[in-house]
Amino acid sequence: MRSCDTGRLLIWPDAYRAELRHEREELTAGQWIGDPVDAELDPGDILLFAGDHLHASQPNVGDRTRFAITKRLSLGAPRYHPRATGWVPCLDPRLIGTPLARLAPLRSALTAGRARQLARDAGRLAGLR
């Protein structure tokens, strides 16, 4: 099975180390990021790239589960955007385009990562009062 069935990984080479503006997990419109490169991988292939390199995966539309194993190595102190949450919502592709489409982000929202983000946001808001 090729990665086109389980969702391909896209990488934007021209956006590497670019100062990209974003609102939460979405890039601000009107920024030039270049064209994505399709990193088509076969089962067992490995791809190494910097974690701050702009990348995304397409939805898994196949009937097999996609697995991704990540390992991070930091040669110095990690740098995080001040508003980074560590949580990015995803949509359940089985519900997109159906009468249940409004429920597509629900599974993603019911995670520990989302709960941590909500707690951090609440703490930030409390500090503004």
Brief overview, please?
The protein is an alpha+beta fold and 129 residues long. The protein has helices at residues 3-6, 106-109, 112-128, and strands at residues 9-11, 22-23, 26-27, 37-39, 55-57. It has two domains: 1-75, no CATH class; 83-129, no CATH class.
Q: What would the average pLDDT be, to the nearest integer?
A: 78
Distance between the termini: 54 Å
Structural class comes to: alpha+beta
H/E element string? Answer: HEEEEEHH
Q: What integer value in Å does the Rg equal?
A: 17 Å
Q: What's the number of structural domains?
A: 2
Number of DSSP E strands: 5
* Unreliable parts: none
Helix content percent band? 10-25%
Task: Characterize the main sheet.
Answer: 3 strands, antiparallel
Order of strands, widest sheet: 4-1-5
Shape: globular
Strand content: 5-15%
The total count of helices amounts to: 3
Task: Describe the protein's architecture and organization.
A 3-stranded antiparallel β-sheet has the order 4-1-5, with no helix packed on it. The protein has 129 residues and is α+β, with helices and mostly antiparallel strands. Strand 2 (22-23) and strand 3 (26-27) form a beta hairpin. The protein has helices at residues 3-6, 106-109, 112-128, and strands at residues 9-11, 22-23, 26-27, 37-39, 55-57. The chain is globular. The chain folds into 2 domains: 1-75, no CATH class; 83-129, no CATH class. It has 3 helices and 5 strands.
